[in-house]
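TICKET #2291
ISSUE: user wants both folds in one file
ATTACHMENT 1:
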Amino acid sequence: MENFIKQLASEAPVPGGGAAGCVFGAIGSAAAQMVLNLTKGKKKYAQFEEINVEALQELECLSNEFLYLKGIDEQAFGLVSKVCALPKGEERDKELQNALQTAIQPPYSALELSLRGLEVLQGLIETTNANLISDLAVACAGLESATKSCYYNVMINIKYIKDGEFCSFWSGKAKGCYDEALSKATLIQEKILQKIC
């Protein structure tokens, strides 16, 4: 993590915002896993054991997917940076358009993962250790940050893509996912705050 932070802070083009968004998602998923692991085996929550175990397994998968997409995002944006360094011309323009279209895929996939993570989180407020409710809030904050970061990275790439049909399709999908995820995050935060305050 320390190495990633140093690289992110440097003048190197990668890792960038998309990779950071994936890390936010992995951290959010991990915080929720901690809550589940500290709930596991507690008599008070025995009735929720099965659904909590399923949620834990899914969140473990999500964390791994986020970290996988972090690497893919770095590769994709690295390609964009390399193409941008080529001499200007028709061939460069064509390669750049292809690279930009490829570059939206990792953050869009991470955006979908963020939504799924929030859906899982929504079901944990009443099934997990009440003493760890603030940690669920941290999980929500991580997934909300991932949602925003990944959406912004999809849209900044779309801005420079010339294929109108492509842009319309992917911006619509991304906006729908973004809106739904933020709506869920708001509801989760409101429920948590009611229990904390």
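ATTACHMENT 2:
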Amino acid sequence: MTKFVSSDLGVIASENHQSPEKSSQKHSKDDSKEGKLDAASGEVVAVLPSENGLPTVGQLMRTVSQKLFGLYREQLSHVPDNVSCHLFSNKLVVWVDGSVTDVEKRLAEMGSERLELVREAFDEIFSPKIIALVERCLQVDVVTLMSDTCYEQRCTSLMLLLAEHPRVRPSRKSAGSA
């Protein structure tokens, strides 16, 4: 059951994330220089515009990577090896290395027919949480989410079609060439 979405040729930005950075910095109830805070949990849920205006693509990708890493840890008690995000215009591609849980590993090793059912149930429960997370971080609606998991390589790919390109600050490279 392979799902695939094509993307524009030009990569706007990418960000790898291997482990979330702990911040001992206290934030105000409503916002911080780093992002918008969720009133209920007190955690940063979206990058706010920097002093120069909008956040950079790198800041957005780093936030999405960190939040997805945390989602795996909190919801599944599983720590992936690496989370990489790449934004192509209005398409977000996420690669999660080490996404396969211990239960899935055991089922795959046994050749269980139930492995696909476990992944389908996982996707049904986890996909709305991923969509909500991305929408909060990028401040853009997600039109669709497609995903697939490779058990041999123990990785998962996520492809999200966004309603529009997230608002970002132009890179220095593109600003300098204009």
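RESOLUTION: both attachments delivered.
EXTRA DETAIL ON ATTACHMENT 2: Confidence is low (pLDDT under 50) at residues 1-17, 19-34.
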